[in-house]
Specification:
Layout: H1 13-19, H2 24-57, H3 62-90, H4 92-112, H5 116-130, H6 135-143, H7 150-176
Helix pairs in contact: 2-3, 2-5, 2-6, 2-7, 3-4, 3-5, 4-5, 4-6
């Protein structure tokens, strides 16, 4: 008697991914992952402009101004570990959605605070959320074959675009624009 499994061809994950048609799911994943990178670009570049503005708004000392990027990147270090765990337990898509949702809420809260210490807390939570944006590259790596790794290069396009948007908005809002 022959085992049914012996007649099936054995394929690697990359061979299976190559055979799968790149339909709308593939491009949705690429675009949504790119949006994660754009969010990372927004937060990473907004802190520079925000620090200067916070110094003026809250009459902050140079040390207090330097604390804002520290709060952001300390949060990002914690967020990277936290969201890696969340992704392992609940899945990458859920972790990415929570990360981006938390980032959006953090940005809204940061724009509304009236006290310096609340600004520090807001940037810390924005950092935690930003720590999860790196999952987008992991997710892309899982759904594309080695042959289609161009998707990773497409992701790299979103970060500089977000940087240009932040710089342009800052230029306009801070009085040097149109």
């Amino acid at each position: 008697m022959q085992d049914d499994n012996e007649s099936l061809p054995i394929k690697s994950v990359d061979e299976v991914l190559i055979e799968i048609n790149k339909g709308s799911y593939f491009w949705i994943v690429v675009i949504l992952s790119g949006c994660c990178y754009a969010c990372d670009g927004f937060v990473g570049n907004s802190i520079g402009f925000s620090s200067v503005c916070a110094g003026d708004e809250f009459d902050s000392s140079p040390l207090e101004i330097r604390n804002l990027p520290f709060a952001l990147f300390a949060g990002a270090a914690i967020g990277a570990i936290l969201f890696a765990q969340i992704a392992d337990i609940y899945g990458r898509v859920h972790a990415i959605l929570v990360s981006n949702g938390m980032l959006l809420i953090s940005f809204i809260a940061i724009s509304l605070v009236q006290k310096y210490w609340l600004l520090i807390i807001g940037w810390f939570f924005a950092g935690i959320a930003a720590g999860g944006t790196g999952l987008a590259f992991d997710y892309i790596s899982e759904v594309v074959s080695i042959k289609d790794r161009i998707a990773g290069y497409i992701l790299q396009f979103f970060w500089p675009v977000a940087t240009m948007i932040v710089a342009s908005v800052a230029w306009i809002v801070l009085g040097n624009g149109f």
